[in-house]
Design goal:
The structure holds two protein chains of two kinds. Chain A is α+β, with helices and mostly antiparallel strands. Chain A has four helices and twelve strands, in the order αβαββββββαββαβββ. Chain B has one domain: outer membrane lipoprotein receptor (LolB), chain A. Classes of the chains: A alpha+beta, B alpha+beta.
C-alpha cells in the first residue's frame, strides 16, 4: 500500500469511527419538555402496536447471552400480548386487569389487583410503552439523553427494595415516530435484560381476540 | 427425666418401624449384592459431563404458585455449580451457588420465595440432582432385582436413607428417592437424551407441595 492510499484508508476509518460514535454516544437531551409533548401526542394517536422483539439476557456467570424471540401486540386501552416463540413457547396476556400465562403444559389466570407484584409489572410494562412511566418521578430519578437517532431515558428507582431487584431502567425511543425501540433493565452486577423491538407497525388492525384467554 | 427418655425411645422405635416399612416397599423382590460386587457397580451423576447443556426450561410449582422460566445450571469449578432461575421476561427468581461438600451460597432470591425453609429445600433438591453419588464407604448396601434387572443402592442418611435406582447396563441413576424417618420425602426422576446426556429431571415432594421440572434446551 503506498503512502497516499494509507492516508486515504486511515481517513475513511476515522470517518467511519466518527459516524459510529455519533450514532451510539448520547448527550443530555436539549428540549425535554418538547420530547414529553411529542410523546403525549404519539401516545394519543397510537391505537395499536405490533412488533417483533429480540430479548437478550446477560448473566455475569454465563459467557453466552440467552436470546429469546417473539412477537408483541398492544391495543388501547391496556391490552398487551407478549408471545415468546424461542427458545420456548410462552405467552403472556394482560387485559381487563387480568394476567394470563401459558406455556407448553400450563395455563394460569391471575387477578392483577390481587397481586402487588403483578400490579407493579403491569404498571411498568404499560408505563414503558405509553410513556406514563416518565411522569412517575416520585418512584424514579429520571435523566434524559439523545443522539441523532434515538431519545434515551434512564430511570433509577428511588426505593431501596426496588433497587435490590433493578438498578436502573433504560428506555430508548425512535426519533422518527417516538415508539419504544429498546428497553434495558439493569440488575445488580453486570446482569441485564435488553429487549429490542423491530419491524414495528403502528395502528394496524389487531383483533381483540388476540387478548382473549384461550 | 425418665418420661423424656421413654418418649425418645417410643419416637425412635416408631421411626425405625416406619423406616423399615418404607425400605421393605422400595426393596421388594430384591436380593442383596455381596460387598465384593460393590466395586464393579457404580453411579455416575448426570451433571458431571462437560457436554451437558447449560440452559433448561423450568417449571416450579410451590403450593398455589406456578413459576415458569429458564434455569441455568453451570459448573463454576470442579467443586461447585451455579444454578439460576429466571422468568421468560428475564426477572431473576433465585441465584444459588452449590458446593459438592453440601455448602451453598445464596446470591439472590425473590422476596416471595426467600424463606429459610424454602431456600434449604431448593438447595437440598438441586444439590442431590447435581452431585448424587452413593459413597461405598458410608453405610452403603446394593441390591439387585432379578425381575427387571435393576440395581438399587441404599445409603443411610441420618434417620432416613437415600435409594438410587438404575438399570444394570447403565451407569446413571434414573430414580432417586430420599426417605426420612416418617417415610418417603422426595423423588427425583431422570430422563436421558442418550446414556450420558440429560434431557429432563422431575423433582416431586411427597409431603410438600413442591414440584420442579426441568427440560434441557439442546442447541438446534
Amino acid at each position: 500500500m503506498n503512502k497516499s492510499a494509507t492516508y486515504t484508508f486511515c481517513f475513511v476509518l476515522t470517518l467511519l469511527a466518527c459516524r459510529v460514535s455519533a450514532q451510539t454516544s448520547f448527550m443530555p437531551m436539549g428540549d425535554i419538555e418538547g420530547f414529553k409533548n411529542k410523546l403525549v401526542t404519539m401516545s394519543e394517536s397510537t391505537q395499536t402496536i405490533v412488533s417483533d422483539f429480540i430479548q437478550e439476557k446477560n448473566l455475569s456467570v454465563l459467557s453466552e447471552k440467552i436470546i429469546s424471540k417473539g412477537q408483541f401486540f398492544f391495543k388501547k386501552e391496556n391490552n398487551i400480548r407478549w408471545e415468546y416463540t424461542e427458545p420456548t413457547q410462552y405467552l403472556i396476556i394482560i387485559s381487563n386487569n387480568q394476567l394470563f400465562t401459558r406455556d407448553e403444559k400450563n395455563q394460569k389466570l391471575y387477578d392483577i389487583q390481587s397481586n402487588k407484584m403483578f400490579q407493579e409489572m403491569n404498571r411498568f410494562i404499560s408505563g414503558c410503552i405509553q410513556g406514563e412511566l416518565l411522569k412517575n418521578d416520585e418512584d424514579y430519578a429520571i435523566a434524559y439523553f439523545e443522539n441523532n437517532r434515538q431519545y434515551f431515558v434512564k430511570l433509577v428507582p428511588r426505593a431501596e427494595k426496588m433497587k435490590e431487584m433493578l438498578n436502573e431502567v433504560q428506555i430508548f425511543f425512535d426519533k422518527n415516530d417516538l415508539t419504544v425501540s429498546g428497553l434495558k433493565m439493569v440488575e445488580s452486577g453486570d446482569d441485564y435484560t435488553k429487549i429490542d423491538f423491530i419491524n414495528k407497525q403502528l395502528n394496524v388492525e389487531v383483533p381483540l381476540e388476540k387478548f382473549s384467554f384461550k | 427425666m425418665l418420661k423424656c427418655l421413654l418418649k425418645n425411645l417410643v419416637l425412635s422405635s416408631l421411626c425405625l418401624l416406619l423406616l423399615g416399612g418404607c425400605a421393605a416397599s422400595l426393596l421388594n423382590n430384591t436380593q442383596r449384592l455381596p460387598e465384593a460386587a460393590l466395586t464393579t457397580v457404580e453411579i455416575t451423576p448426570w451433571f458431571q459431563g462437560e457436554d451437558n447443556p447449560v440452559l433448561y426450561k423450568a417449571n416450579v410449582d410451590f403450593y398455589r404458585n406456578h413459576f415458569s422460566g429458564l434455569m441455568v445450571i453451570k459448573p463454576v469449578s470442579d467443586e461447585s455449580h451455579r444454578v439460576l432461575f429466571i422468568t421468560e421476561l428475564g426477572i431473576k427468581i433465585f441465584d444459588l451457588e452449590l458446593f459438592r461438600n453440601g455448602d451453598y451460597n445464596l446470591h439472590y432470591c425473590l422476596d416471595a420465595l426467600n424463606k429459610k425453609s424454602v431456600v434449604r429445600t431448593l438447595k437440598n433438591d438441586l444439590a442431590l440432582m447435581i452431585y448424587h453419588r452413593p459413597d461405598k464407604d458410608k453405610n452403603m448396601k446394593a441390591y439387585v432385582n432379578p425381575l427387571n434387572d435393576r440395581i438399587i443402592f441404599r445409603q443411610r442418611t441420618g434417620l432416613g436413607a437415600r435409594y438410587y435406582f438404575k438399570r444394570a447396563d447403565r451407569t446413571n441413576a434414573d430414580t432417586i428417592i430420599q426417605t426420612s424417618c416418617t417415610g418417603k420425602k422426595v423423588n427425583l426422576q431422570f430422563y436421558g437424551m442418550t446414556d450420558n446426556l440429560i434431557d429432563s429431571v422431575m423433582i416431586s415432594h411427597y409431603k410438600l407441595k413442591l414440584d420442579i421440572h426441568i427440560t434441557a434446551l439442546h442447541e438446534k
